[in-house]
Design brief:
Elements: E1 36-41, H1 49-63, E2 67-70, H2 88-99, E3 102-108, H3 116-123, E4 139-145, H4 153-164, E5 168-169, E6 174-176, H5 193-212, H6 216-219, H7 223-229, H8 239-245
Parallel strand pairs: 1-2, 1-3, 3-4, 4-5, 4-6
Helix pairs in contact: 1-5
Length: 247
């Protein structure tokens, strides 16, 4: 199964617990069951800083009450490489996306853009499959790591892709410059403003995921899709029609 095992999931040495709200979405909406977050990263290197950043994000999300799964793209074929997309890794990625309520995408910046590995994962997620939509209505947090000075090319591209995939991309984002300086030999992120920003982003992702949860179906209810499905509005049960008629 192409899932990445998260080591030391409860060990957060760079986090100052004195300033942490362990349930950042408290009071916004019902927080049970735990929000389900899928995390994707964009490098297969043994010492992958995008993977390290995603692992730190997953640990924080767990602390904030979320359930997390990290997809391992190492066995994922290229788009259109396998006939009918009939490959276990493709099936698993799509099911994980269906399972999720929110996602985190983190890519290295390579030649001023996201990596092919990152784009391949997104390309394997269709807007629609057998009447199901693997990304529509999910929340999304975007992050990037860079080998040089701070840049926002990758997060900007990920935002564009999130909009294309009909996701609600949260306002905050993370861009880690000179990532090779920000992680120790064990792959753990050192205390820094970059780490603090990832904490901020994960707090915000949990908040938006919980906030939108009660309204998820209504927010993606589209006229064109109702028309295509042949599903006319029943004025007797439609809340908007009832409200208008009661004026």
């Amino acid at each position: 199964m192409p899932l990445l095992d998260l080591t030391n999931p409860d060990h957060l040495p760079a986090l100052d617990l004195a300033f942490v709200r362990e349930r950042p979405a408290l009071g916004l909406a019902a927080s049970d069951p735990a929000p389900r977050i899928l995390l994707l990263y964009g490098s297969l290197r043994e010492r992958s800083f995008s993977r390290f950043a995603v692992e730190e994000a997953a640990r924080l999300l767990r602390l904030f009450g979320a359930e997390t799964r990290i997809f391992d793209p190492s066995t994922l074929p290229l788009p259109d490489q396998v006939k009918n997309d009939d490959h276990p890794a493709i099936h698993e990625l799509r099911e994980l996306s269906m399972w999720s309520e929110g996602q985190v995408w983190c890519s290295p910046e390579r030649h001023g853009q996201i990596t092919g590995i990152m784009k391949a994962q997104i390309d394997h997620l269709p807007l629609e499959m057998a009447g199901r939509r693997p990304t529509q209505g999910r929340t999304l947090a975007v992050m990037q790591v860079s080998g040089g000075s701070q840049s926002f090319n990758s997060v900007n591209t990920l935002r564009l892709l999130g909009r294309w995939m009909r996701m609600f991309t949260i306002p905050n984002q993370s861009s880690v410059a000179m990532a090779y300086k920000e992680f120790d030999e064990a792959g753990r992120m050192k205390p820094s403003a970059y780490y603090d920003r990832i904490v901020d982003v994960m707090e915000e992702l949990v908040r938006f995921t919980i906030l939108l949860r009660p309204h998820a179906a209504q927010l993606v209810d589209r006229y064109s899709e109702r028309k295509q499905a042949g599903a006319p509005i029943d004025a007797a049960t439609d809340h908007s029609a009832i409200a208008i008629s009661g004026r």
